Structures are given as C-alpha cells and as structure tokens.
Amino acid sequence: MKIESGTYFAFAKANYTMKKIAYLIAVLLIAASCVSSGGLHYDSLQNGEQMETSRAKLDHSNYDELLKKYVNEAGFVDYQGLATEQAKLKSYLTYLSVNPPKSDWETGEQFAYYINLYNASTLDLIIDNDMPGSIKDIDGPLGQVWLKDFITVNGKQYALADIEKSVLQKMGDPRIHFAINCASYSCPKLLRTAYTGKNVDELMDRAATEFVNSDKNDLSDPNNPKLSSIFKFYTSDFTSNGMTLVEYVNQFASNRLNAGAKVTYKDYDWSLNKQS
C-alpha cells in the first residue's frame, strides 16, 4: 500500500507526540505517588555547606570486592558472574538494613550509605528479575519499577524513588545524579569502588567529571552542546544554587561551554548496562 509523504509525516509526528505524552504521564505519576522517606534519617546541606567526611562508621568492603570483581572500568556489569555471588550482595544489603543512618552520623557517611543502598539494591533487583533487557521491563505500581517496594531498611520497605527523590535529592548535592546508577546504558557509570564516609566527596566529584566528559554528552560545539537527558530530568537540582545549567556543567567540563549556549538533549538509552 502506498502512503503519501504528507500522511506518513503526520503519522510519525503523532506517534512522537504520543510518546512524549506517555513519558510526561509517567513522570507525573511518579511525582504524585506516595514517594516518602518513611522515617529514614538524613541531613540536608544548607547554603553551599560542605559535607563532613572525617570518619566512616560502616564497613562497605564486601560490596567493594563485588564491584571490583564484576564491574569493568567502563561501568558495565557482569550480571551472570555477580549472580553466582548474589548471597554476598544480599548479605551486604541486610547489613545496611540493620544499620540505618542516625542523627550523629556525618553527612558524608549518610551520602555514602544511601548511594550504596540505591546501587546495590538495583543490582540485586536486576538479578532477581533474571537480567531483563531493561530495568523498565520490571513491573511495579502504576507500571513503574521505581515505585516497587523491595528495599528493606530497619524493617520497613522502600522503593528506589523513595531513596532517590525523598532522601538523596533532598540532601542538597546534585552530584548524587552522577553517583547513583539505574542499570541502564545512558546512566552515569557504576564505579568499581564503594562509597564510604571518607571517600564520598572525592568519588562524587570523580563521577561527575567522568560523566560530563563522557560520550553521554557531546560538548564539542561550545555553542550547541548535546547533553544527557539527565540534565533535562533534574534541571531544577542543578540550578538550585543560582547557577545556570551551562555554568553547572562547566564546573566539570574539559571543553567549556559558552554562556549563551543553546542546549539540546540526547535520547536516553534504557538498555541494560551489562558486559558484552
């Protein structure tokens, strides 16, 4: 059947519009859902306050060993190999579960705890669901895996959205978006080192620098950069301190962008971040 060019382009445009609407609905559903910190303790950085990193209370060495063994330098995961030691991963998550942050913890220790909790729980979730092609293939409330309660802390159940949106985002450091990993190709890479109360500030800086200068962004044209959609998803976090988005990116960029740069965004690839 022959399709006139005008009809084809009208259909393509309508299909694109429907995809955008579906995406916006999904975002609104997550925002409107019962996402909550549910009593988890955290402290927020105020007015440019620096996190405290003088000591570390928890031992993240077992998780660190798993990362070094099953995550490569590019941040891709050997899920098949990790599955053979899933019991060790679950043991670490149990350790976190019974050692939740307390009011006397330094902020660095709190950031390390919640970043590791998010990343380790995501790894466990992928293995529990037989390593699907995408984390988005895993079902959850309203069809959103982010709303699935499967993370246990101190006897209560939480979802990934609870940890990200109701804790980490509210702690006041946008670099968390480069530290947490959603098991997808377009995510900032999963580092091969566990975060601790002492190294968290250094590792967050490293994660931000590596991500901004990776192929997840195209900064080759300082006037027309193509940024990761992460910068679109969380623009308000990156500009909350009064910086423009360009100014925020320039803190980490090797190729600095011009102040009046026209920013566009790359499509997000949700395929699983597995080793080939």
What does this structure look like?
The protein has 276 residues and is mainly alpha-helical. Helices cover 42% and strands 4% of the residues. It contains eleven helices and four strands; from the N terminus they run αααααββαααβαααβ. The protein has helices at residues 5-32, 61-70, 79-83, 86-97, 107-128, 160-168, 176-179, 200-212, 230-233, 235-238, 245-250, and strands at 151-153, 156-158, 226-227, 264-265. The strands form two sheets. A two-stranded antiparallel ribbon has the order 1-2. Strand 1 and strand 2 form a beta hairpin. The chain is globular. Mean pLDDT is 90; it is low at 19-33.
Task: Sum up the structure in keywords.
two-stranded parallel sheet, 11 helices, single chain, 276 residues, 42% helix, mainly alpha, 4 strands
Q: Would you kindly provide a brief summary of this structure?
A:
The chain is mainly α.
